[in-house]
Design goal:
Blueprint: E1 2-8, H1 14-25, E2 30-36, H2 45-53, E3 79-82, H3 85-89, E4 100-103, H4 116-138, H5 147-158
Parallel strand pairs: 1-2, 1-3, 3-4
Helix pairs in contact: 1-4, 2-4
Amino acid sequence: MKTILVLCTGNSARSILGEAILNQRGAGRIIAYSAGSKPKGVPHPGALRQLATKGIDPSAFRSKSWDEFAAQSAPAIDIAITVCGNAAGEACPLFIGAPIRGHWGLPDPADVTGSDAEVDAAFNETWRLLELRVRALLALPFDTMEPAELRAALAAIGRMEGAA
């Protein structure tokens, strides 16, 4: 099984949703985690509502630092995917396993203000765009691909609809 770390700055919205979708859709092939460079401390309420809407227990998710995955006791990470522009440009710590990196930049639904319905619509759209990317990844024989080939595939997936 491949381990995937989904990274964003705050680890409160996109990366949390990415972790959930990868674990849900990739069961048996993937173990996914998420983290942030400057974690907010708690997942965004819109992310928690989105998880619940999709039948995923939101209580298992927390906002955490990517430093947890650089520790000696951390699981080896095969693939690290950034989902926001800030995390893509930041210097990532050295992760155990020297992961292949990809960038799937998406607009931040946590930036949307307004009613719960407006916020939830933004989180639903982010879910849809992340799910498209996860399906594209799962369609690949990523467990047997050469690193350069996988990097190129991750980059192509990152340019799909809705890329920021």
